[in-house]
Amino acid sequence: MRKVMLWLTGWGMSDSSWDAVRSQFPSYEHITPDFSDVTVPMQFFEKVEGELRSLSAQELIVVGWSMGGMLGMRLAAQYPVSGLVLIGTTARFTCEQPDLRKGWHPVVLQRMKRQLSVARERVMDAFVEQMLTPGEREQIGLHVGMDSQKWSTAALIAGLTYLEEEDCRPFLSSLTAPTLVIHGTEDAICSLAAGEELASRLVGANFVRIPDCGHAPHVFVPEAVGDSLKRMVEQLAEEGN
């Protein structure tokens, strides 16, 4: 039986951000699309679809973080998946209201796109700082999981446009695969309230709060994330038997 985990990373992030969790599942084949050379928003999903078309897995678990979670939801709405794991994700990243509990105002993303061309490092540093809690910032490896040199500037700009335009809400009711929603309680990128709302709209979703954690729980508490994912894997095995 071919078992595959498809790992969809967040905006500007390296696939190495998954290493500590991914290593806990040696019996699975691991696939991570490379978004670093994307030039237009539609190519993100095209890359994910391309990986899926090459698979003949009997068990496919899709794990998406932030922007990758949105890609994962769209994928699960169009293709059969065995399980869906959404980390620090929201169904709609932007919100016209000035309320970060509901999403970022599009103007913020538009300003980031303009600044990337002239002050890329400053934009990325500010984003990573916002991802982390004060305690996480003190840890060694502030930039763990980020590879701003690998993603082209065009890919970063395309990713921000994707976040500005994507809206997964219309097809949430069609997602029937077992779903695990994991969210840090101190997430300042996608708020805890957004994660709770997402889980409430997904039939039968299990919601896991990671206390005192920011936007990257799989980086800072990989054991907790791995344990939750292992429970999903065990459940799938029981259902398969």
Automatic annotation (TrEMBL):
The keyword Transferase does not apply. InterPro entries: AB_hydrolase_1 (IPR000073), AB_hydrolase_fold (IPR029058), AB_hydrolase_sf (IPR050266). Keywords: Hydrolase. Residues 47-219 form the AB hydrolase-1 domain. It comes from the Bacteria. GO terms for molecular function: hydrolase activity. It holds the Pfam family Abhydrolase_1. One of its GO terms (cellular component) is membrane. This is Alpha/beta hydrolase. It comes from Brevibacillus fortis.
